[in-house]
Structure formats: structure tokens, C-alpha cells
Amino acid sequence: GKYELMSPYDFLNQFIQTARRAKDRLYVQAMYFEDDHVFGTMANALKQSAKRLVDTRLTFDYFTFMVSGGRINYFPILSTSDRSYSDHKQARVHTLTRELQQAGVRVTIT
User: Fold this and answer.
1) What pTM, to 2 d.p., does this model score?
2) Looking at the predicted structure, is the pLDDT value of residue 106 above 70?
3) Tens digits of per-residue pLDDT, 13-54?
4) Helical axes 37-51 vs 80-102, angle rounded to 10°
């Protein structure tokens, strides 16, 4: 097959366009995600897809809860500020996951 290497910006734009055109299903799999401007945009596309009654699913890895701000939380227990930041980011992921589920997106954490 033919493969195309895309910039993150181009990938996000193409994903949004594809999500808007999805008629039967839209499945997304990610190693991790955070509640940030990039995934927020993707999450909105997933919610809109589910609203149109498209079979919409998101699968992500539990690794999500071991990462904050793009870096692995090696020893967050040793630093109060790191632990607070990590806890905040994890809470936002849980909130976003619930919002997606309430919108009709089927979420699986592996």
C-alpha cells in the first residue's frame, strides 16, 4: 500500500473532515490522550459523530493515566507539585471520558 506521512496539523484537519463524512462508524484508537486543544477538537468531532447516530468508538491505553503534559510520571509521589498536576490531568481525562460516553461515544480503556 501507499502511505502518507502527515504533520499533526494536517492529520487533525483530515480527521475532522473524515469524522464529518462518517455515515456508519468512526473508530479511533490512541495510545494516550489528554484534555488539551488537540484532543478537545477530536473529542468534539467524536461527539458530533455520535449525535448523528454513527457508531462512534474511542479506545485508548491505560498509559494515559501515567502521562501528564506529554511526559511520563515516573515518581509523582516524591513531588507535591508533580502529584497535584498529575492528579488534575487525570481528573480531566476522566471527565472528558464521561462526557464522551454521555454523548454516545463507546469508550474502552485497554
Assistant:
1) 0.81
2) yes
3) 999 999 999 999 999 998 878 878 888 899 999 999 999 999
4) 20
Burial of 48 (0-12, 13-18, 19+ CB in 10 A): middle
Q: Which three cell numbers stand for residue 64?
A: 494515559
Distance, CA of 39 to CA of 37 (rounded, Å): 6
Cα–Cα nearest to 33, from 50, 15, 21: 15
Alpha-helix runs per DSSP H in the chain: 8-21, 37-51, 80-102
Beta-carbon contacts of 12 under 8 Å, excluding residues fewer than 6 positions away, are: 38, 41, 42
Give the chain's length: 110
Cβ atoms of 93 and 62 within 8 Å: the answer is: no
The amino acid at residue 7 is S
